[in-house]
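Sequence design from tokenized structure. All designs in this work follow the same two-part layout: the structure record, then the generated sequence. An example of the structure record is given first.
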């Protein structure tokens, strides 16, 4: 089963509706945004972070136009010197490749050891968009259904008020 099928099957099994848009390979969020222009939903970026000693990982979902202040993330979460995780750690924890980081990588996290964070700025949006663990599609899911998905997988999440 390919990654997109794994994601859509999980959503179908949870009775979560979604809109799937196929497009050419998108290496960046800007490219993906071009292919989904005009479709309702906040464009997100999902960042896979780790602490200095690589003893903890974090998944952060925010507006794809916003930049992360790593010091602020540290202050809000207690993460010790957070930074982008290595490609190897991303593959180990979420079974994903760089450029395809997505909330749906949680389907591959058998240890359930990756805390999930959302930026408050996107929580009032009706829908969010993500790669379905593959960069040849974008999937749109209602925010309330996305939170249901996370809970159904056995994860909690926290909402952070990140400043621009």
């Amino acid at each position: 089963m390919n990654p997109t099928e794994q994601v859509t099957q999980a959503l179908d099994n949870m009775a979560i509706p979604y809109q799937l848009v196929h497009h050419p390979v998108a290496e960046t969020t800007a490219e993906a945004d071009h292919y989904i222009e005009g479709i309702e939903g906040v464009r997100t970026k999902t960042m896979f972070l780790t602490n200095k000693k690589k003893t903890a990982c974090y998944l952060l979902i925010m507006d794809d136009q916003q930049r992360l202040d790593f010091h602020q993330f540290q202050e809000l979460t207690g993460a010790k010197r957070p930074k982008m995780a290595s490609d190897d750690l991303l593959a180990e924890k979420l079974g994903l490749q760089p450029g395809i980081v997505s909330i749906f990588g949680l389907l591959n996290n058998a240890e359930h050891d990756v805390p999930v964070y959302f930026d408050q700025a996107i929580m009032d949006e009706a829908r969010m968009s993500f790669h379905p663990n593959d960069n040849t599609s974008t999937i749109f899911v209602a925010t309330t259904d996305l939170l249901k998905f996370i809970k159904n997988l056995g994860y909690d999440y926290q909402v952070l008020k990140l400043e621009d």
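The chain is about 25% helix and 25% strand. We note this feature because it recurs in several other targets discussed in the main text.
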